[in-house]
Amino acid sequence: MPDIVAMPDITALYAGLLGLMAMVLSYLVGRYRAPGPEGVSFGDGGRLEVLVAMRRHANFVEYVPLILILLALLEMNKVSETAIHVMGAALVLVRASHAWGMHPEDTRGVFRGIGAGGTAIILVVSSIWAITVFF
Question: Considering only CA atoms, which of 27, 23, 9 is closest in space to residue 88?
Answer without folding.
Answer: 9
